[in-house]
Amino acid sequence: MLNMIISFIKKLFSTTQQTKQVSSDPRAVKLSTSSATRRLVIPDIHGCPKTLQGLLNQIDLKKTDYLFFLGDYIDKGVDSKGVLDSIISLINNGYTIYPLRGNHEDELIETIEIKDKILSYHAGNNLEPLLKDEYRLLDEYENFLFQLPYYYELEDYFLVHAGFNFKAKDPLKDFDEMLWVRNFPKNLDTLKDKKLIHGHTPTPIQDILKMIKEEQRICLDAGAVFNTIEGLGELLCLDLDTLKVYRQHNLDKKAIS
Q1: What is the pTM of this model?
Q2: What range does the domain containing 57 cover?
Q3: Residue 137 lies in a domain
């Protein structure tokens, strides 16, 4: 079992010529994507595995594509385990997957590290299938969650769950705000002309489409789990090169308001 877990971690975050840490911090990854056929980004899934699968079917994912996930795989929806299983299965089947940490994963990690008891975490979010007992997660999920970085820096994009704290002297060192920030200045000079792609803040689809066309900062979170709210209830995937948007309406049907 231990060898299997170690092998999984190495497979997920192996150091190659394409991938390296920014400075020496494992929370930040600088990535060359020149060998990718397509560069695709999917934001907050929130326990909606059928919706994720519907989107993947549309994308027709190839092993030469680079697929980035922006975090918040768990909570709110009907099946957090199903979402994690889908992502881990893609990795194990040789697809090029780069997952990030969201605030919901981080909260669960903190619960494990500090409280050492997770049954009380977000009651009603169906996390019990992730447990091996009332105090611990199954090894496969715990190792996956603990390895998630906070952001990726590509040649022309920054990818992060929530965004950066542009009020900080160095926005790339405020890791907490990468999971929580919601307010942004109009001037994003700190990004060195790179675009910022994030999720975290449910945003009406028409506003997202406008950002994709016009702005340096793009929020991709169309509130997939909020399927009863007008303008939300879609899971998106953005092709970073063509700016094509794939749209999948919620297929998991749990109403969130």
Answers
A1: 0.91
A2: 36-100+148-249
A3: no
Q: How many domains does the chain have?
A: 1
- The model's pLDDT over 139-194, given as tens digits with 9 standing for 90+, comes to 999 999 999 999 999 999 999 999 999 999 999 999 999 999 999 887 787 788 89
CATH of the domain at 239: 3.60.21.10
Q: Which of 72, 38, 78 is nearest to 237 (CA)?
A: 38
CB 147 within 8 A of CB 12: yes
pLDDT of the residue at 120: 67
Q: Specify whether the CB–CB gap between 242 and 250 falls below 8 A.
A: no
| Cβ pair 47, 225 in contact under 8 A | yes
Asked, for residue 12, whether it belongs to a domain, the answer is no
Determine the pLDDT at residue 16.
Answer: 43
**Do the domain assignments include residue 117?**
no
23 inside domain: no
**175: nearest Cα among 154, 151, 201, 159:** 151
| Contact by Cβ (8 Å): 71, 118 | no
**DSSP letters of the chain?**
-HHHHHHHHHHHS---SSEEESTT-TTEEEE--TT-S-EEEE----S-HHHHHHHHHHHT--TTSEEEE-S--SSSSS-HHHHHHHHHHHHHTT-EEEE---HHHHHHHHIIIIIS--TTTTTTS--GGGBSSSS-B-HHHHHHHHT--SEEE-SSEEEESS---TTSSSGGG-TTHHHH-----S--GGGTT-EEEE-SS---HHHHHHHHHH-SEEE----TT-TTSTT--EEEEEETTT--EEEEE--S-----
